[in-house]
Amino acid sequence: MRRLRSRFSIATQVLLMQCVLVVLLTASGSTAAVLQAHATERDGARRQVLATAEALAVAPSTVAALRAPDPSAVLEPLTTELEHQAGVDFVVVMTPTGVRYTHPNPALIGGTFAGHIAPAAAGRPFTETYSGSLGPSVRSVVPIRDPGDGGRIVGLVSVGITEHRISSLFGRQLPLVVGISAAALAVAVLGAYAVGRRVRRQTMGLGPVALAELYEHHDAVMHAMREGLLLLDPAGRLILANDEAVRLLDLPAQRTGRTPDELGVDGSLGAVLAGGADVADGIHLTEHRVLTVNQSTARRDGRDLGTVVTLRDRTEIQALTDELASVQGFAEALRASNHEAANRLHTVVTLIELDRPGDAVRFATGELAAQQELVDRIMGAVEEPVLAALVLGKAAQARERGIELTVGALTAVRDLPLPVTDAVTLVGNLIDNAVEAVAAGEGPAARTVTVDLSDDADGLSVRVADTGPGIPEAVREEVFVRGYTTKGEAGRGLGLALVAQIVKRNRGTVAVSGAEGGGAVVDVRIPRRAEP
Q: What Pfam family is a match, any one (predicted)?
């Protein structure tokens, strides 16, 4: 039976169950209606015979006929006419002891009434079902009182309708009851068919086993995916989010039916999700992560079903990319240093060959002293070797591009209030952005970048100033939004957005201002977290 059920779609099963249920309900209702109609006819017959018998019992002509020498001769025509007018099968007038004066069958006149008469003889009318001389019938027996004799019972009258007549009356109503039942059944079946068609469209004709397997596979895939998956309806409300999406976006437990803004997804990612436009491999930042986002509109049969969003966590990849960029920068710095060292060595050798050893010594020691001074200042002030190496590497890269990177005299970093990886990303992106701005500048102006790092009891301060073209005041807030760039190149505009992410994550502040002689100044403040 189970295998047979699995062969039918849910719509077919619903239709069959509804049809069976409708047939059972209609059959039950029809049976109840038939029984009710039969009972109604019987009750009508009981009321009819009782009313007829009482009317005949109180009629003056009946009492007068009982006083006549031959009551049968007077009463027989009256009862025969009454039987036809009242639609009853017999009207029997009898003595108080039950001897008949009238009967539809003249041969039975003078005989004893077949039925109970004791209650009526005692003065109480009653109705019963009894099998008499004409067969089973519903009959009433009523006493006849003589008003002129103090109400003495002078006779009895019985009026009855046979069961055959009651059945014939019910038979005339039966086609109407059956017709109504058949019409109700037809309407119910049509309704069940309409519901079945709707269910078939909604379930795409799948059976319960197929739907169960589809759900199980869907649930397994949703939990196993290493990418975050979001399904949004056409109004932008969340329909579904898998485990990875919940983790990546820190979604609350009560999330279904809410918009991205209500879920706390803001910034550029929130704008993309709310907009619903197609996106391919877009990079967006949340408070803690860097995400690759793909978004596309889902359609079926020309209907807009909403949007499908996939999320990939590239936070670690971005960190590795930053580290790789730093390593590449170090390699390029080493290559440049090697090239410069070779040039200086050739210069020293040439001066010696020209018999000018004093000039050679002054040239060599002067270059070494300048570089060593920068190294000593940074390594003496910045205790974190990775951060110190970063600044030295950036200085070498800037020097190779003809830009002077100077470190402020107040530089002193003893204890970082944020992870060293965040500090490297923060300082590295600020310096890179400043170097790019200076390199893009035109004219004979000084090409310098100044870095100030200071550490105190309240936290870490980072200031990076450049002599580039500067940042207009109207867009100083936008530079920290992912994708903003003045270079017009795809894929740019991520560095300062990462800076803003780190600052926000560490509950710091960042501000942009203009330098006195032109250029831009970026100030970052990272507070220390209170000890628990």
A: HATPase_c
CA atoms within 13 A on the CB side of 272: 25
Q: What would the DSSP string read from start to end of 98-164?
A: -BBS--SSGGGTTSB-SS--HHHHTT--EEEEEEETTEEEEEEEEEEEEGGGTTEEEEEEEEEEEHH
Q: Does residue 377 contact residue 388 with C-beta atoms inside 8 Å?
A: no
Q: What is the total residue count of the chain?
A: 532
Q: What are phi and psi of 237, to 5 degrees?
A: -90, 145
User: Which residues have C-beta within 8 Å of that of residue 451, sequence separation ≥ 6?
Assistant: 391, 405, 406, 407, 408, 411, 427, 430, 431, 462, 463, 464
| Element containing residue 35 per DSSP (H, E) | helix 10-58
Sign of CA dihedral 429, 435, 441, 446: positive
Local confidence band at 292 (pLDDT 50, 70, 90 cut-offs): confident
pLDDT (tens digit, 9 = 90+) per residue, 324-378? 666 665 566 666 666 666 766 777 778 787 777 777 777 766 666 666 666 777 7
Q: Domains of the chain, with CATH numbers?
A: 13-170 (3.30.450.20), 227-313 (3.30.450.20), 317-527 (3.30.565.10)
Is 42 within 8 Å of 166 (Cβ atoms)? yes
- In the chain, the percentage of residues whose pLDDT exceeds 90 is 5
The pair of structure tokens assigned to 302 is 């020309």
Write out pLDDT tens, residues 495-532: 777 888 888 888 888 888 887 777 888 999 999 875 43
Q: What percent of the chain has pLDDT over 70?
A: 74
3-state secondary structure of 90: strand
Report the distance separating Cα 342 and Cα 336, nearest Å: 10
From residue 39, how far is each of 42, 139, 167, 470 by CA, in Å?
5, 16, 11, 101
**Confidence (pLDDT) at 492:** 47
Q: What is the pTM of this model?
A: 0.47
Q: Which amino acid is at 136?
A: P
Residue 218 burial class via C-beta count within 10 angstroms: exposed 0-12, middle 13-18, buried 19 and up: exposed
**Phi/psi at 247 (nearest 5 deg)?**
-70, -45
Kindly report the average pLDDT of the chain as a whole number.
Answer: 77
The first and second tokens of residue 427, run together, are 């300082």
Give yes or no for residue 216 having a pLDDT over 80: no
pLDDT for position 15: 65
- The vertex-229 CA angle with 228 and 234, nearest 5°, equals 145
Instruction: For strands 509-514 and 520-527, give the pairing.
Output: antiparallel
Residues linked to residue 292 through DSSP beta bridges, in sequence order: 283, 312
CB 230 within 8 A of CB 238: yes
> Are the beta carbons of 520 and 466 closer than 8 angstroms?
yes
8 Å CB contact between 382 and 395: no
CA distance 379 to 369: 15
